[in-house]
Amino acid sequence: MNKDKKEYPKVKPIDLKDDYSIENLIEEFQQSGVFGPGRVGKAVDIYAKMIKEKAVIFLGLAGALVPGGMRQIITEMIRKEMVHVIVSTGANITHDIIEAVGGKHLRQIPYKSDKELREKSIDRIYDAFVDDESFMKLEDNLRPIFEDIWNNHKDENNSLTLPSYKWLELIGERINDKNSFVRTAYEKKVPIFVPAISDSILGLHMWLFSQTHKILIDDLADLGKVQQLAWDANKAGTLFLGGGVPKNYIFQSRLMSPKSFDYAIQITMDRVETGGLSGASLEEAISWGKVDEESSMVTVIADITLVLPLIYAGTLAKTK
Amino acid sequence: MNKDKKEYPKVKPIDLKDDYSIENLIEEFQQSGVFGPGRVGKAVDIYAKMIKEKAVIFLGLAGALVPGGMRQIITEMIRKEMVHVIVSTGANITHDIIEAVGGKHLRQIPYKSDKELREKSIDRIYDAFVDDESFMKLEDNLRPIFEDIWNNHKDENNSLTLPSYKWLELIGERINDKNSFVRTAYEKKVPIFVPAISDSILGLHMWLFSQTHKILIDDLADLGKVQQLAWDANKAGTLFLGGGVPKNYIFQSRLMSPKSFDYAIQITMDRVETGGLSGASLEEAISWGKVDEESSMVTVIADITLVLPLIYAGTLAKTK
Amino acid sequence: MNKDKKEYPKVKPIDLKDDYSIENLIEEFQQSGVFGPGRVGKAVDIYAKMIKEKAVIFLGLAGALVPGGMRQIITEMIRKEMVHVIVSTGANITHDIIEAVGGKHLRQIPYKSDKELREKSIDRIYDAFVDDESFMKLEDNLRPIFEDIWNNHKDENNSLTLPSYKWLELIGERINDKNSFVRTAYEKKVPIFVPAISDSILGLHMWLFSQTHKILIDDLADLGKVQQLAWDANKAGTLFLGGGVPKNYIFQSRLMSPKSFDYAIQITMDRVETGGLSGASLEEAISWGKVDEESSMVTVIADITLVLPLIYAGTLAKTK
Amino acid sequence: MNKDKKEYPKVKPIDLKDDYSIENLIEEFQQSGVFGPGRVGKAVDIYAKMIKEKAVIFLGLAGALVPGGMRQIITEMIRKEMVHVIVSTGANITHDIIEAVGGKHLRQIPYKSDKELREKSIDRIYDAFVDDESFMKLEDNLRPIFEDIWNNHKDENNSLTLPSYKWLELIGERINDKNSFVRTAYEKKVPIFVPAISDSILGLHMWLFSQTHKILIDDLADLGKVQQLAWDANKAGTLFLGGGVPKNYIFQSRLMSPKSFDYAIQITMDRVETGGLSGASLEEAISWGKVDEESSMVTVIADITLVLPLIYAGTLAKTK
Question: In what order do the strands lie in the sheet with D122-125?
Fold first, then answer.
């Protein structure tokens, strides 16, 4: 008979009362401790630890986070200094600005086919929608922003070459919406890197502007900056909302640093078995020296929009 | 320009305070209304509606729900009359009884390989564990339960033929644990059907007992009973925790009824594209006459253990 | 510098000519050796080894295999003695018999909604279809089969109690279609266990028949038989097409044997992280003593209908 | 009774002989016509149609395609003019060049933990591996390539600003390996766009070079070029191997064109329900005007490495 077995913690069945808070829920998750609840509970612990130990926290934004209702939480995470460096797809930036300029993400639109939506000028993002009017508002607002940036920052040769994080900083400065995370990042001096900025509607508008103004995005200067931030971090952690470019870009930022990431949380529905980085285990990253065996890390297998609110509110409660 | 677009609801970004309750969270989910949160929010609405309209609610139990910490919630759902008929895999019954007789589900057991676990007599269920001691307790407790059932219920020919729901009722009567859902179902007169009872450790113990006692499980009598319950239900709803036999068995229970299911909620990670019933859309069930086009239904794509607590607590709050 | 690294095999890029055979394809897969192709290649090796070493091979059938076009391959596997024991869901048996009696699985049916299909009396299984006419043919043909079985096998008390594998044997004897796997299994003396036979249209018809004839399915006798077959097997292997009841039932058949399974192949799209058995890794089964650390095993993450043909034809080529 | 039902094609069960070719296999898939085989069969038809109708074919490369053994097939697709424009992640380019300069992707490396791999300087990509030696070879070879490009192409101001497709063309010109797709694309004048080139080891080496040489990647010039190619295409088709940046970048290339894509094939394991573009249905793209309702399109839900070989060889056979 194996005596030490008695020492292992039990899976305490989750038990909830009507008036339980999210904090209570997370405690129940942590005492259950297995499957999805165990992973969410661990994510809260790791996130709280990152904050307490003053790690530099890198946030990766991929997938349809803004259309999926995550905009305010991202903004609050920046405002509450739960995040210090952001790497994003172009789409999330585009959709943040759309909301900032009065555009809308809609829902519960009945339709018979995507063709019907096309005829109504409504674009679909699974069960969220955005109408062409919103994209027109984006266009109307981006043009004067680009003009203003140009007028204030063009160099003596009548050209403007900036890394993406500088472009985002200057755009954020010109956005008038306290709920925008691009704006809030500007205010809180959180750099936003968008390595594939050209791969977005925002990028298309930059291209349009580039037809009449000599502008460039200096990707390599971005790389220098993000590596500097990673190098300078005594402790560093990362929260990956989805995979894609942001995940790889954040991980490679510390490849040349003497130290790897100390904490890593990823939320994804992608599978590990296809070999792609988006679904890759965090353990695999140990072999690359991106994280340490001693690093705290957890992968939550879930729709981000379902569990980010829990992890955010749980971490808030735990660190207040 | 399409005027009526102004009428569509917006995706309201989820916004949470430190002290928010699960009820608040569900409200935020419902106002966001898309992706996973939209589905969970809709599941709460449908579940609350089922209860308010006094539907007969069929619960399907598949997957490792008890090792995954869902036992107490299932018990509470029965106790609070949120569930009226249960169809379960044999495994969930087995694990409920294991906990009832003092067995344990464990976690955070460090191990190098499954071989090491084998040597330690610990069985793994993803990141939950159960030791052979617990299975021995099960064995020690089931034997006298079977003896007692035999002594009280064998017929004049010294044999005992019962449908699974009767076996479960008699077992539940003999379980001394208020947190057991098998016990609670007995108390609340909620029948539990286990169509593949032989496909479980419980089934193996019944087989052992059958070597010395003439017992039979009358699957066809089960079928008659479950169809009667479905036929008699004025309104009927179903909550599928996973797919497998329970999902199909519940759906087919109303195939011969004049009416199909009025409400359906399923929680699953299985995919629709392989064609299997476990991942099949609820809409597909319309073509079979299992649900109506007018039925309220929603599929939540998530780890059951993560979202059942939310749906349960949200529905509680909404119906109190 | 790590000298021994030179010894590891390379991932040879897959290279195909126009006229390559499936055998060539499998060889390319094996020389690439990673991700999906590596798994399929390993499955072929293990299957060929099972056959060469004269293992008793248990086949698990779950999911919509017959509507998905796998019927002939299953039949051929039985005919060619690549399979010796079958455990199936009731649905796969039902759909095999539907085709045997002239019913059809259809495709490319245009429809606007599942309601329209309902009105046309067509049932949908993802993108396959079966019409109510086929179910009527099933009914018309099952009734005389049950009558004939009854007349020939009822006991002196005017009742008939048989384990599912006996029911299937007697049904198979009465099916007149050489492409039916239920028929072919009868001919090749391959027992088919259907632990949840009541959970199917076939089961509903047995129930209907039971309203006028005293019939019973003896699940516990099935359990005795399958365990005997597992016990008697010197070497035993398993091929799981999907999870569900068949996977668990096969695995538990050797729980009481002195030996566990020597080979295991599973094909599934289910995920490991939810803790359910259908998606569970084969490695986890080591902790339960269902397979050995020394067992040859592989999980192929794919739509069964896509890779079973490759594994079947590849194994045929390798063992001819 | 519905007469026209007789007209619908049947699901013909897949039937294979020992010596069947991949062409035969695809025919069987097409006659089965449902689930995965139906989708692969349709992909072959669409791909063959794209080629016959002389569409400009855009190929998206995401995920670990080269470590997963797809390098030769990509090269052959370029050589055989089955592909005319490529959009790739930086990683696939990096791994192609690694193999071109004598680096290796390995397999079947036994290890106890990723830490052990780290100590051995072996990086893991699921079950494929690449050693640091290979990365050193990459470094040793890239430096002189960059020097040579610099010497031949720097402008009068001692700087070099090029879009990614030009960088790739100049690199391809300097690669001495006929099996390299970067080289083959150069030879066949197939432009390769890498919108997030900085997000890769290749990008890191460009950054290193930029520390001593004034180089820039002109993302916006890339955007102009890809849109020109899309605009000029009379008919246009796309084959998405995975999602990510390549999928979005290809789709947005025709957003400003008068015409959308006429054909689209995507292979992915990503799910539709999370709302991210990688898993998004092709039908959703109709609402955006990226494809037409009349477009031929299909999504294959599978590990790319398993089905690309089938689709490639099947299309070859069909178009020879």
Answer: D105-107, D128-131, D122-125
For chain A, the structural domain boundaries read 50-100+138-319
User: In angstroms, rounded to a whole number, what is the distance separating the alpha carbons of residues A28 and A11?
Assistant: 10
Q: Chain C within 8 Å of A301 (Cβ-Cβ)? A: yes
Q: From C75, C202, C96, C228, select the one nearest C145 (Cα to Cα).
A: C202
Superfamily of D20-29+36-102+135-319 according to CATH: Deoxyhypusine synthase (3.40.910.10)
CA-nearest residue to D273 within chain B is B35
Alpha-carbon distances of C239 from A227, B214, C317, rounded to whole Å = 49, 34, 18
What's the pTM?
0.97
- What does residue C286 show for φ and ψ, rounded to 5 degrees? -60, -40
The rounded distance, in Å, linking the Cα atoms of C66 and C305 is 10
Calculate the alpha carbon distances from D320 to B1, B59, C20 in Å: 50, 56, 14
**Which CA distances in Å does D178 have to D89, D181, D315?**
21, 8, 22
CATH of domain A50-100+138-319: 3.40.910.10
How do strand D159-162 and strand D214-217 relate by DSSP bridges? parallel
Subunits close to A (at least 3 CB pairs below 8 A): B, C, D
CB half-sphere exposure, B19, CA atoms < 13 A? 0
Q: Tens-of-pLDDT digits for all 320 residues of chain B?
A: 444 556 899 999 999 987 899 999 999 999 999 999 999 999 999 999 999 999 999 999 999 999 999 999 999 999 999 999 999 999 999 999 999 999 999 999 999 999 999 999 999 999 999 999 999 999 999 999 999 999 999 999 999 999 999 999 999 999 999 999 999 999 999 999 999 999 999 999 999 999 999 999 999 999 999 999 999 999 999 999 999 999 999 999 999 888 999 999 999 999 999 999 999 999 999 999 999 888 899 999 999 999 999 999 999 999 98
Q: Alpha-carbon Rg of chain A, whole angstroms? A: 21
Distance CA C29, CA C12 (A): 9
Q: Do residues A242 and A304 touch, judged by C-beta distance below 8 A?
A: yes
Q: Write down the H helix ranges in B109-198.
A: 114-119, 132-153, 164-173, 181-187
**Chain C: residue nearest B270 by CA?**
C270
Site of tokens 């750099």: A191
Q: From 3.20.20.220, 3.40.30.10, 3.50.50.60, 3.40.910.10, which CATH number describes the B21-90+143-319 domain?
A: 3.40.910.10
Kindly state the tokens that stand for A40: 């969410």
Token pair recorded at residue A137: 């508002």
Strand A106-107 and strand A128-131: the pairing is antiparallel
The residue to which tokens 């003695």 are assigned:
C81
Q: What stretch of H or E contains C208?
A: helix C201-210
Contact residues, chain A, for D222 at CB < 8 Å: 198
- Residues ≥6 apart with Cβ < 8 Å to C119: none
Q: Which helix (H) or strand (E) holds A40?
A: helix A35-52
**From the CA of B127, how many Å to the nearest CA of chain C?**
8
Residue C286 touches chain B, beta carbons under 8 Å: yes
Is residue D140 within a helix (H) or strand (E), and if so which, with residue range? helix D132-153
- What count of other Cβ atoms lies within 10 Å of the Cβ of residue C1? 8
Instruction: Considering only the beta carbons, identify the residue of D11, D14, D309 that sits closest to C107.
Output: D11
Quote the CATH superfamily of domain C14-319.
Deoxyhypusine synthase (3.40.910.10)
Cα dihedral sign for C182, C187, C190, C193? positive
